[in-house]
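=== Discrete structure encoding ===
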Amino acid sequence: MSDSYHEADWRESIASMPKAEVHVHLEGCFDPEQLATWAAESGVGMPRAKDDLLNFSGLTDFLHFLDWASSLVSTRERLAQLSYSYAQRLAQNGGVYADLIFNPTHWRAWRGKLGGMIDAIDAGLRAAEEDGLPSVGLCVSLLRQQSASEAAELVDILTGLRHPRVVALSVDGNEAVAGNTGSLFAEAFERAGRAGLQRTVHAGESSGAEGVRDAILLLGADRIDHGVRAIEDPRVVALLVERNIPIGICPTSNIRLGVYESYEQHPVNRLIEAGVKVTINTDDPVLLKTTLIDEYLICQKTFNWSRESVSDLALNSIRASFAPAEIKKRGEHQLAAWIAERHG
């Protein structure tokens, strides 16, 4: 079998493999052409030429861009359209479910209108489900620079709404800029957990292993987004393994935003070998010019993963998701059938 055929075979196999995505941001799903159209319609200037729109100088530039892009989504129709488009992308990548993160602080037109914003996203996702596309849950995220009172207010709103589409409270943003915020949000996360929301925390990206430790011990994280720098402290790796806490790794994001210099240096394989429940994700797929298929394919090629190893990661993703039990069970059955058909 030639190398080119082998890669094509892997791509087809990964594309058809049932899987979930558990670390992906709605803010990272903007199409440049669509952004240019919306900017022109809204009379808003572009941050740079369209051809360079997705060329970021680092994490800070990237986060500023997300604020600009999100500000263009000023109508219910645009927000529903963006949400529907994500469900399409998920299906095209073999996805059977996703936990989709969004951070209300980025969306200027929707400030003070969180209920309406969730309804607009839900409208797009419901339309997608009606068209046979995968189900998607929502993780509503705090920004690290927010205050404890703002965190409490968000939890109050979410527990008051009790919207069935919302599955988790999240926190994201630049850890290096905000510093250690675990204790700041501990009460809000505890209340969210008591109210039945899952808890997922961005940690171990721009912070080191201590960010992952704090996410577990101070915020009661059910899942860690990124988590890769846990590898810097064997005690934190052991904590992830002991508590069976999955991490949502996004390899291309880590390379593009300078966390690691190359895929070969990325610790995803070492974390797997250490027993951590790893999942593979895109983070911000359109903005980072990647797909869920590509993320699996790059890692398989870099680390020479076996077919069994790849399907184990797909199973991790389904089990690590915040999907309802019946959707998880269906996804596991679909994956088992796929494995049986492919490998006997």
